Amino acid sequence: xxxxxxxxxxxxxxxxxxxxxxxxxxxxxxxxxxxxxxxxxxxxxxxxxxxxxxxxxxxxxxxxxxxxxxxxxxxxxxxxxxxxxxxxxxxxxxxxxxxxxxxxxxxxxxxxxxxxxxxxxxxxxxxxxxxxxxxxxxxxxxxxxxxxxxxxxxxxxxxxxxxxxxxxxxxxxxxxxxxxxxxxxxxxxxxxxxxxxxxxxxxxxxxxxxxxxxxxxxxxxxxxxxxxxxxxxxxxxxxxxxxxxxxxxxxxxxxxxxxxxxxxxxxxxxxxxxxxxxxxxxxxxxxxxxxxxxxxxxxxxxxxxxxxxxxxxxxxxxxxxxxxxxxxxxxxxxxxxxxxxxxxxxxxxxxxxxxxxxxxxxxxxxxxxxxxxxxxxxxxxxxxxxxxxxxxxxxxxxxxxxxxxxxxxxxxxxxxxxxxxxxxxxxxxxxxxxxxxxxxxxxxxxxxxxxxxxxxxxxxxxxxxxxxxxxxxxxxxxxxxxxxxxxxxxxxxxxxxxxxxxxxxxxxxxxxxxxxxxxxxxxxxxxxx
Length: 529
Description:
Shape: elongated
Number of helices: 6
Oligomer: single chain
């Protein structure tokens, strides 16, 4: 038990009975004792002496306070309500000599005076009445916390993250032929199952107010052609034998459109699914596919636009007219006099006089592994064996932050600062109004409407701030990662090569070997691999 104290009243004096703690109980807190005496207007006693006795108390003692009799003091309690209004903790103090003990109804009445309407623990009260413990925290009321639900989710029964990176052989060459690029499916096969969200259960605080569980994420099955959905709209099945892919959260099933060559015999090709070309794609023709495009032969001055990956086994000679654009990655043996754009990465054995852009990285690390002439850009990393040319071909390479992400990051930062300043301005008004209402002061109708409107607007701003903060944190991680952007050359970077990392630029004056270029303190620095 905790140490405690009791007022002793005789005909001649008022004194304190001081009891030390037992077992692992806490000693008497001098601050709590003085607050108790002050509240009962017991003053002009030997404070120094009392402090000395309390601090060294080992056994029960009686300390004389004042040489006169005071009126009896009844048993009392002090109630503390947690900031979230979910728990009420009481500390009881014993009655003085001649004082009256509290009963159950009086304790409950004290709780109700604190506006506690829900969660009063009568069992805890009865336990105290049977075995009274003083100067001890006792939980007398508890709110019911909300039960938070779970987000809805979708389980896919096919590989949604295909590994299309080519395998490297022991001799350093790259195997562009054996790639895991297609998810085959059969008619009637289960493709996806949706698990609806659990909405959770509302809680109640001590004031009787409802506490809603957090909002859960709802999901729905999105799909294209050749797919059947179950009656309860929770399962997707394939209607055909073909291949399945997940594109921007939608499930697509289609037959692979297969041709020998793309040229005069076929004309331009447009496909809702993937395209497989066993031969070549000739100059002047185009392929548009919502899925992947795989060409076993050579692509000439043609145009290929794919929603997924583009794979060219024997490479591309664009003849200054060829262009390929992929929503996924680009894997090709070589790129020459071509324009290539990838939403993911670009992998090639060599790049010659081409304009190449990748949203993640460009890897030219095969047996030849050279980038010569043209403009090559990646957000994260460019890796090659040799960069530039001894023949003086203009070669530009650039890595760094996506400007769209950087602009969005700055805009969110400004928006969050503005919201914070706005909330700080309104908080004193709402606090003052709340204090007035707590004291029982009535506000005029116009004032009340204004306060309610201000409170609703503040809640909206707080929700928007939380949303912006979450997005800002995600962009912060992306930007932090982009600060590590680099250019690696495993053999050499030739003089004349122009390098840009974020906003820092460098024209290589002398041939560099086995090096890594990074941005450091606003400049492009050369470091060892």
